[in-house]
């Protein structure tokens, strides 16, 4: 009896395993017309005038008048443009015979409607300086459009070319004449159209058959949502996805990237440096209000450990706040490299004397600092631990305070931190959008600079540089800005962020746009 | 019996109120201003005026108890509020996410029943011999592993190494196997033990001895043992259903399964309070209802309890 029962059980087990074998998939046979891209995030609402959607998806469907390239601003939907001598009026000559994917003609009227709704939705778009300075828009004739500013603003063209909010969507998609509360379709002029979207599962993009420019070679791009990083890695190894692409540990942590690099079965690519990752040293807090202390901290951190040990060399060591490839940042500034002796000497000079327990004290108080970070970000914690170690060596106690996103923002706004991370937005937002936020009190940068003697002057100079028409004068002002924060040592530069891409060998043409948030799918092809 | 059922149903109302009230308090204990969060998730700089207008829009200026009352009343009318993040009604979000989770929970239940019954029986037959010890040890080991880890191991072995199954996502019947197996492992060891011990206990009962003495066929005797052993396991299975659904949180994230577990995690990361509250409410209702049903079924099955209920 026992034997018979066992036999039945084992037969059942075998049948069950057999079942799974029968349903096995064959992921190797990828439809070569379809590129599968994995992301931890859904594309969400890709309305180009709002910030709710994924930038890379918005970029596939919607285009701007101009585009940002490594060689500067180039024509896109506008063939050419003229800027008046006072820097207030921009006249755009539009490309003819372009239609939105719903058949609506692209013309000056459509451009005016798009820009007007973006400016009208001021509350949501005021994060971009250009939105604040636009005065009026005018249709001159069917293919000529003028934009008038309240004050001159030098990064106007760069900001018009950003992935949002100034991208063109068919006016037919507006609801009640606006896009502020959503749109009823996603008809753009871009190389792809959104063919299908299943919330939190996938989005399917297909080639825009009437695209005015060079049509992409890959017919379909499937954007798959996979919330877990490890799953993305396994899916790549299983051939279910073709491409992983992203910045700042978004899609891949540094470990996974280098292990795939070592495996040699995939192509790995790293973009030129884009954003800057640094630590704010709060000039308004007791210990860090002393410039000597701030300088000492700069000498105490071993950035090599961070770049190599933690980030696996996927980011470059930053000697100064902005990389030299950032516009207006190619200047000679004081570099404070790792030198613990110098750090200790500076702390001695500042009156913090080392005691028997290895820590430094002044008037009976231990030199204790607090680094606040967003606890969602595992990498920031690890970097913090490395700094904790470095600082302990020179007698400084560093407390790590990880908080969830909202609490972190609250702390940022109140300025109740000694050290906090600061990330610039990367090109083409840098340097103008980054320095512009230094003037906003809800940003950690503002709070950290608030104790500086010339903070008022700094804010004014930033406001001035944004409206400066003269190229030389502008460069001079940027030099003053960067030199001042460098001299005052309020930023502890760590690394420059890069975009990482990993893909199957048969996928070609993978490159990087200027913006780290865009993915140039339209240039990719299979071989 | 009828009276008992009515009494039990009436008893769930205060319980439900208590649970939702506690959940409401906990969420309101957070120091961050929900109005500011609602603005920030939409990338609006929270200046004082916008925060104030958002507070009014969300009704945050009302006293705490009024807000709780409004929320409960709205919820009973099927209005669970709107998500801060995508402005969609929470009810629609739940409606979309529930079917995949139910599918996953259903498949998991089938796996649990099949394996716990078969392994439980094998273990009881080989009571305390090496087969029994090995199987129990093995199942125990699997249950002890955290599901995010075992999930990835299974994914690596069956998808990447053997190439049998897709790693993740929800497409086709084969994609449910790995998440369902991962989810079932947490529960297997409990039920294997339960069925095994019941079987062993029942074999020693007098009625089995009599059955054997009457010269009934071995298979008939075994069936009697089994059918008597399965009863208590069934009620335990009933209570597993809400636990299963709550347990999908981790598994759904690893396997990119578009269910409520993922909805909940996403809501937590975004501090999307209306969604979190709705999730808690739904889970509370589910636990309470399942508990109630199980209790009623037990009373119906067991004559002793039935008498007590009267």
Task: Itemize the secondary structure elements and their pairings.
The complex is a heterodimer of chains A (about 525) and B (about 300).
Chain A: H1 2-22, E1 34-39, H2 55-61, E2 66-69, E3 72-75, E4 78-83, E5 89-94, H3 108-120, H4 122-125, H5 129-133, E6 134-141, E7 144-149, H6 156-160, E8 174-175, E9 178-183, E10 192-198, E11 202-207, E12 220-225, H7 229-237, E13 243-247, H8 254-263, E14 267-270, E15 276-281, H9 291-300, H10 303-310, E16 316-317, H11 340-349, E17 353-354, E18 360-362, E19 365-366, E20 368-374, H12 378-393, E21 397-403, H13 405-414, E22 419-423, H14 432-437, H15 444-449, H16 455-467, H17 471-488, E23 491-496, E24 499-503, E25 507-508, E26 525-526
Helix pairs in contact in A: 9-11, 16-17
Chain B: H1 2-28, H2 34-40, H3 48-57, H4 64-76, H5 90-125, H6 130-144, H7 147-161, H8 177-203, H9 206-213, H10 218-246, H11 248-254, H12 260-269, H13 273-301, H14 303-309
Helix pairs in contact in B: 1-13, 2-3, 5-6, 5-8, 5-10, 6-8, 7-8, 8-10, 10-13, 11-12, 12-13, 13-14
